[in-house]
Amino acid sequence: MSRILVVEDEPAIALALEDDLRLEGYDVEVVSDGDAASRAARERAYDLILLDVMLPRKDGFDVCREVRRAGVRTPILMLTAKAQEAEKVMGLDLGADDYLTKPYGRHELRARVRALLRRTMPDPGGIYQFGDVEVDFGRAEVRRGGERVELTPLEFRLMAAFVGSRGRVFTRQQMLDAAWGQDMAITERVVDNQILNLRRKIELDPAHPRYIASVRGIGYRFDG
């Protein structure tokens, strides 16, 4: 049974989420403020976190930042009434895996939850190495020169997609589908930002990348 942490300060919404997820067969825990959310996510094991942005004591962005800095890789689905692209980009850059804008439909929420739980299951395919970088699929980790590299879950999925199709050219839309999911309304510019972040972490010279190559007018290719 997958265990889900729901972080929502509106009692009616929190109760509706809890009831709906329990009906779907999930084990659900609910907290109502940012401090409690950050503490719970760092101290207990969950398979998914549903995180509202507007929270008392500490907002969802701060919670996401603290959790990722603590090394917690639990998938995070952010729930918010904010619809601006800048808010979405900020959440994703801080380490969120998906973003759902209120009001949302029950069926869409269920589908996003299933997709995140399915997409973030560890791949037992072992370790792939290129240069001084190791991609450990069993542990969902990347190491460089023997030292762990702090990748967000989204960055790890991009890395896994590249390794799984090395030598192949990815369009930005294909990368969106592979890492974010086909129903995610994200612009292609966000892909470019995430690639820049990934290059900074795995390339010796990010300004002149050796492994993640740009293919002009198309997208990117992994040459590891």
Q: Whole-number radius of gyration?
A: 18 Å
Strand content: 15-25%
Tell me how many strands there are.
12
Return the string of H and E elements.
EHEHEHEHEHEEEEHEHHEE
Account of the protein in words:
The structure is a single chain. The chain is globular and about 50 Å long. The N and C termini lie far apart (37 Å). Strand 3 (48-52), helix 3 and strand 4 (76-80) form a beta-alpha-beta unit. The protein has two domains: 3-119, 3-Layer(aba) Sandwich (Rossmann fold), CATH 3.40.50.2300; 127-222, Winged helix-like DNA-binding domain superfamily/Winged helix DNA-binding domain (Arc Repressor Mutant, subunit A, Orthogonal Bundle), CATH 1.10.10.10. It has a five-stranded parallel sheet with strand order 2-1-3-4-5, with helices on both faces. Helices cover 41% and strands 22% of the residues. By secondary structure, it is of the alpha/beta class. The protein has eight helices and twelve strands. The protein has helices at residues 11-23, 34-43, 60-69, 85-93, 106-119, 153-164, 172-179, 188-202, and strands at residues 3-7, 27-31, 48-52, 76-80, 98-101, 127-130, 133-136, 141-144, 147-149, 169-171, 212-215, 219-222.
Features:
Arc Repressor Mutant, subunit A; 4-stranded antiparallel beta sheet; Rossmann fold; 224 residues; 5-stranded parallel beta sheet; globular; 41% helix
